[in-house]
Design brief:
This protein is about 0% helix and about 40% strand. By secondary structure, it is mainly β. It has two domains: about 150 residues, no CATH class; about 100 residues, GOLD domain (Jelly Rolls), CATH 2.60.120.680. The radius of gyration is 20 Å and the shape is elongated.
């Protein structure tokens, strides 16, 4: 089973990364305070292409595509997200739809229906249609079926054994659309870490709670039932090496 994670993504020139690279982390950085839109991000562990039986190559998997008017469907590491158009605040208003842990090779909408490819040879479903020779198959449904694939869940965070400067906020981390939420914080030295939230995705940050950490001692916190904000970030009051990781269930 894939472990869903959250991503931070960034580069100044879209043509800067034109060859395959290996990295531990990926983030997108914009040099503008205006909204921007991500058209495609593709991450692969070992095999960026799928080799079907009989040879040939399918190519890289689809990551993002418009499936409703000015609404893109973003498929990242086992979770679907709704990505609004730029004039609807774009990435600032991204929200999770479902966590499916499936390999979806491609998807599109057509005549009000939603189509997926990447179907194996054994799975049976009323949604799956196969060719007469059994060599091709598509899943067919509607956009509303996405919410039935499994509630959004995952784990990750803005800091993981990261060298932190006092007063420097972390990258924002998505919080909206998830149910039960926990956070674990650690620091290599005594430090106070403040969690701030952006309640509605407009960039207005307000304090949530400050956690006073003892060097090397992890601290866990479960958010109150029903609590939510759009984004969350961390700020340390001291230079340190810190970890802030969230678990959404």
């Amino acid at each position: 089973m894939l472990q869903p994670i959250a991503l931070a993504v960034g580069f100044e020139d879209v043509n800067a990364v034109c060859q395959a690279v290996t990295a531990r982390r990926l983030r997108v950085v914009s040099n503008s305070r205006d909204y921007f839109r991500i058209y495609e991000i593709a991450l692969f562990e070992d095999r960026p292409e799928i080799e079907p039986d009989g040879g040939g190559r399918f190519g890289v998997a689809r990551v993002c595509r418009e499936v409703a008017t000015e609404r893109d469907l973003l498929n990242v590491h086992g979770s679907f997200y709704e990505l609004p158009a730029r004039n609807a605040q774009g990435l600032a208003k991204i929200r999770p739809i479902s966590t499916h842990d499936l390999f979806v090779h491609d998807f599109c909408s057509h005549n009000g229906l939603l189509f997926f490819t990447g179907i194996d040879g054994e799975t049976e479903s009323d949604h799956i249609f196969r060719s007469a020779d059994g060599k091709a198959a598509v899943w067919v449904g509607v956009v509303d079926d996405l919410w039935k694939l499994g509630k959004p869940r995952g784990q990750g965070g803005p800091w993981k054994e990261t060298l932190i400067q006092a007063g420097q906020p972390s990258d924002p981390y998505l919080m909206t659309g998830y149910d039960r939420k926990e956070v674990e914080l650690t620091s290599a030295s005594d430090a106070g870490i403040l969690l701030e939230v952006d309640v509605d995705g407009t960039g207005l940050w307000i304090p949530y709670r400050k956690f006073n950490l003892t060097a090397g001692q992890p601290l866990s916190h479960e958010f109150p039932k029903g609590y939510s904000a759009y984004w969350i970030r961390a700020v340390s009051d001291a230079d340190t090496t810190a970890t802030v990781q969230f678990r959404y269930q």
